[in-house]
Design brief:
Layout: H1 3-11, H2 19-62, E1 67-71, H3 77-93, H4 95-106, H5 118-148, E2 156-160, H6 161-190, H7 196-201, H8 203-217, H9 223-264
Parallel strand pairs: 1-2
Length: 265
């Protein structure tokens, strides 16, 4: 927590912060995130050759049965891509840092007891993000294989390196973020922004969005991959509702106990 936030909390027993204090807190959190990703990107610069070999492997496998290759259209393309890939690697390997900073910034919306759940959110979100990245990586070869199968026989598939890289890495990170979203749903419930009733009431829309997302993330011809990717997202959504319901039940029960004590007094 920043010095400004601690000072403000010292003057206010409820820990409420002014808009200026929130902005200073946001700025400090942003600098921590940016600095962490920068350090991660430096490490990613040295890891880039290994990561690129893994990313390009599906294309090399396809090249065994049809004409396919990755192309570098200009002199600076390889250097530019190395920089971009280093940043993406930095984002993934520093996910514990920026996820913690996000949760730490949001927790002033919780009461003192609920702030203890910050680490619970954090230690849940990090494995889910990494699991989502792994799931995204798992579907990449299937997507590349199916989409390139539409190329007519005898023709050559020429993939521009930067386009191929953006397709693969953005897919991996987007799926990783999708796995973390249920944790933020629970956090919003703890902040009294959304109720468990509202979460479960929207289950049809949630499942529809999940299916659309997985249909976009996986090729339409690979229905099995789509459902295998959608299943954990649906389970995570239901788990988020369960945790939110338990939290709302506890709050409602406590409110009834307080009312009974006031009535008895």
């Amino acid at each position: 927590m920043s010095t400004a936030a601690r000072t403000k909390r010292g003057r206010n027993p409820e820990g409420r912060m002014s808009l200026g204090a929130h902005l200073r807190e946001l700025k400090n959190r942003f600098f921590w995130i940016a600095g962490g990703i920068l350090v991660g990107a430096i490490a990613g610069w040295f890891l880039e050759p290994f990561v690129w070999d893994a990313i390009s492997l599906p294309v090399h496998e396809i090249a065994k049965t049809q004409h396919a290759s990755i192309n570098w259209p200009n002199v600076t393309a390889a250097f530019d891509l190395k920089l971009q890939l280093s940043v993406y690697i930095g984002i993934i390997i520093t996910s514990p840092l920026w996820l913690y900073q996000i949760f730490a910034f949001l927790t002033p919306g919780l009461n003192r007891k609920e702030k203890g759940y910050t680490f619970g959110f954090f230690f849940t979100a990090v494995p889910l993000f990494l699991a989502g990245c792994a799931a995204g990586w798992w579907v990449v070869p299937h997507i590349v294989g199916v989409l390139t199968s539409f190329v007519p026989n005898g023709e050559t598939t020429l993939l521009v390196a930067s386009d191929y890289f953006n397709f693969v890495l953005k897919l991996i990170i987007v799926v990783g973020i999708a796995f973390v979203l249920p944790v933020f749903v629970v956090l919003l419930n703890f902040m009294r922004v959304i109720s468990a009733k509202a979460i479960i009431k929207s289950w049809r829309w949630a499942i529809l969005v999940i299916m659309i997302f997985t249909a976009i993330a996986t090729p339409s011809a690979d229905v099995i991959s789509m459902f295998l990717l959608a299943l954990p997202l649906v389970v995570l959504y239901l788990l988020a509702w369960t945790v939110a319901w338990m939290h709302d039940y506890r709050i409602a029960k406590r409110a009834l106990e307080i009312d009974a004590e006031l009535a008895a007094g």
